Amino acid sequence: MSLLGFILFLIVAAVCAGIAEMLVPNSVPGGFFTSAVVGILGAWIGGSLIGHLGPDLAGISILPAILGSAVLVFVLSLGFRGRRGAV
Fold first, then answer.
1. Each residue of 15-70: pLDDT tens digit?
2. Cα torsion for 77, 80, 81, 82, to the nearest 10°?
């Protein structure tokens, strides 16, 4: 994978995670790189659960990536919600 391909992969993963954060009531704190990591992990989770479905961009199947990222954002937001009150 070239550097440009990797950057495009990160951007697509971050956009998928951003869409997933809009679907879930809570969000995961962090910026672009946190969203990219959540998107990459979400794409892996979604691909494992659903398989290759829908359009493909930069090596990422869009629908499974968004659904997998939404599941991951939901689980992470539950974990972060419990820690917000602790000091």
1. 877 787 788 776 666 766 777 788 788 888 888 888 888 888 777 788 888 888 88
2. 130
- Number of C-beta neighbours around residue 75 at 10 A: 12
Question: How buried is residue 86: exposed, middle or buried, by Cβ count under 10 Å (0-12/13-18/19+)?
Answer: exposed
Beta pairing class for 60-61 and 56-57: antiparallel
Residue 31 structure tokens: 């910026």
Report H helices in 24-84. 32-49, 62-84
Structure tokens at 70: 């939404």
pLDDT at 83 over 80: no
Token pair belonging to 46: 């979604």
Contacts for 52 with CB less than 8 Å, ≥ 6 apart? 61, 64
